[in-house]
C-alpha cells in the first residue's frame, strides 16, 4: 500500500478538521462537496474506508505520534 507523505497527510487532516468544525456537511452544496472530497481523500491517503478510522490512522502516521497512542479511541 502506498502511504501519503506526512505533509500531505497533515494538510488533509487539518482541512478535514476545519470543515468538520464549521459543520460544512450541513452547509451549502459547495461546502458539502468540499467536505466529502477531503473526507474521501483522507480515506484514500490512509487506506481506510471510514473517515473516523482515517482520522485515527492519520494521527498515528504523523511525525511525533506515539506508536501506541490510541487516546482518540477512549471515552
UniProtKB/TrEMBL annotation:
It comes from the Bacteria. InterPro entries: DUF5133 (IPR033457). Pfam families: DUF5133 (PF17196). This is DUF5133 domain-containing protein.
